[in-house]
């Protein structure tokens, strides 16, 4: 049942190319985006509220940058557990997008119901067919990741991300902001993702080796800007969830407003550096931490070899349009968390105190 892998998580990590490909194929036919959103007035949307928990909230964080860039619609990203108790300001021209693998997360479901009570259109991105959130939302888009067993999500997260990309492209097109040619370009870039994820997976032994050196780490920091910050949040959650190593994700520029005081000799700091407009800024934050004793790992696209002047260990990922590169940057972070958990002899698939689906608030 684990397909020859030692744990479901590793099996599911390797199922990501397929999860991404199947999800893309379900909504792109003959190079056209096919989504059933009849009745949704996309061109007049005033605001989009993404509402989710955990990793699905991290997907929402990544979507924020991509949606605002491609659709020019203001986006808010909300933790479902906060949104539902806040009496949020919503207008009838808004759209609430709930993202959930299980479709049963109590807070996400309550947030969806709240939006519906207020008469706001709701769209759910869900993996489990016929789940509560899927049944109750006005519109549903399914991720085709297949059943996910490991508590730590990987393939559902990746499938949610690509669904988010396609939705952003679609909204941008419907609003007249993206020409046909641009849409075709984005879709052809997206079609390269499954192969490129496979390529990143080929480097897993290097991460295994790196993890074997760091299994006694006490604190790990993940930093990045923009989409790289969203990916850092996910890398940090994966790590703490299954390896029980304390970690923090910071928007790189925020470090010096407090957390940098925690950096000491040997602290591991992971810089996600994929955005050409931003990575030099992140590198300068990494340099500041190195001078305070941090050991630096970087995740960067092939070709950014100057990063080796700064980082002690670099994992390279293939290039792709920068809106979508988070889907590649997250893979080494998943692998690192996995190998750290294994090297500590922990229960990778069922970490302590956690449930796959959080159906109580
Ligand atoms: O089923 P959902 O996507 O609604 O679950 C949300 C979170 O509970 C989930 O992403 C959790 O954070 C994962 N264990 C992260 O790996």
UniProtKB/TrEMBL annotation:
The gene is glmS. It comes from Floccifex porci. One of its GO terms (molecular function) is carbohydrate derivative binding. Transmembrane segments: none annotated. This is Glutamine--fructose-6-phosphate aminotransferase [isomerizing]. Residues 33-177, 210-351 form the SIS domain. It catalyses: D-fructose 6-phosphate + L-glutamine = D-glucosamine 6-phosphate + L-glutamate. The active site is at residue 356. Its EC number is 2.6.1.16.
């Amino acid at each position: 049942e684990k397909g020859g892998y030692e744990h479901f998580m590793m099996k599911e990590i390797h199922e990501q190319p397929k999860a991404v490909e199947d999800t893309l194929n379900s909504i792109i036919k003959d190079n056209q985006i096919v989504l059933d959103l009849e009745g949704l007035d996309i061109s007049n949307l005033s605001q989009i509220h993404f509402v989710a928990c955990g990793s699905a909230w991290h997907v929402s964080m990544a979507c924020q940058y991509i949606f605002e860039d491609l659709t020019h619609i203001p986006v808010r990203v909300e933790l479902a557990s906060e949104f539902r108790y806040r009496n949020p300001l919503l207008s009838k021209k808004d759209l609430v997008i709930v993202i959930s693998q299980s479709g049963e997360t109590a807070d996400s479901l309550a947030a969806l119901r709240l939006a519906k009570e207020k008469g706001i259109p709701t769209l759910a991105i869900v993996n489990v067919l016929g789940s509560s959130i899927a049944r109750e939302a006005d519109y549903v888009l399914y991720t085709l990741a297949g059943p996910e067993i490991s508590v730590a999500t990987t393939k559902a997260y990746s499938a949610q991300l690509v669904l988010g990309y396609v939705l952003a492209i679609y909204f941008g097109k419907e609003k007249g902001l993206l020409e046909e040619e641009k849409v075709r370009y984005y879709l052809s870039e997206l079609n390269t993702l499954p192969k490129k994820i496979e390529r990143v997976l080929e480097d897993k032994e290097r991460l295994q080796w790196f993890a074997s050196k760091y299994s006694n780490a006490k604190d790990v920091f993940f930093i990045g800007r923009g989409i790289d910050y969203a990916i850092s949040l996910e890398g940090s959650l994966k790590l703490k969830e299954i390896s029980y190593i304390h970690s923090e994700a910071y928007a790189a520029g925020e470090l010096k407003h407090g957390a940098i005081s925690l950096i000491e000799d040997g602290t591991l700091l992971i810089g996600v550096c994929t955005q050409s407009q931003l990575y030099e800024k992140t590198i300068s934050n990494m340099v500041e931490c190195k001078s305070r004793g941090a050991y630096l790992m970087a995740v960067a696209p092939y070709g950014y070899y100057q990063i080796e002047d700064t980082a002690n260990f670099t994992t390279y990922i293939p290039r792709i349009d920068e809106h979508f590169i988070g889907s590649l940057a997250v893979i080494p972070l998943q692998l690192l968390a996995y190998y750290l958990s294994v090297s500590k002899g922990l229960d990778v698939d069922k970490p302590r105190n956690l449930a796959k689906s959080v159906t109580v608030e």
